[in-house]
Amino acid sequence: MTKHTKVPVTMRAVIQRVNRKLKPDLEALKTTRGDGRMLLDVGRYYIIDYRMNAITHHRVDPEALARELGVLKNLLPATLPAKPLRLGSFAGCIAVSH
After folding, report:
1. C-alpha closest to that of 97 among 16, 17, 68, 79
2. Higher pLDDT, 35 or 78
3. Pairing state between β 54-57 and 45-49
4. Cβ distance 94 to 78 under 8 Å?
5. What pLDDT band is residue 27 in, cutting at 50, 70 and 90?
């Protein structure tokens, strides 16, 4: 029996994994900068299509999308690592079992 361990994955790594999966379709997951009008209109994360030069999906949950695309394999809910971390070392982490 194999023991599954949870490994923290940063949100940036999740976005990179998703973007590698979306690249053949000429799409990309983007993050809104700042707290302005764009954040209100499309949410923190959105998907753009380079062929149409348009936003195709808004208010995207990167973790759910990553699980749907199969780039995050486990089905456990995302959690922060259990052991104490230095402040700012893994901000925005989710756990992935290997």
Report:
1. 79
2. 35
3. antiparallel
4. yes
5. very high
> How many helices (H) and strands (E) are present in the chain, helices listed first?
3, 5
Mean per-residue pLDDT of the chain: 80
Checking 65-74 for CB contacts under 8 A at 24+ apart, the result is 65/18, 65/29, 66/14, 66/17, 66/18, 69/18, 69/21, 69/22, 70/21, 71/14, 71/17, 71/18, 71/20, 71/21, 72/9, 72/14, 72/17, 72/96, 73/97, 74/4
Considering Cα of 42, then 45, then 48, then 53, what sign does the dihedral take?
positive
Please answer whether residues 29 and 45 qualify as being in contact, where contact means their C-beta atoms are separated by less than 8 angstroms: yes
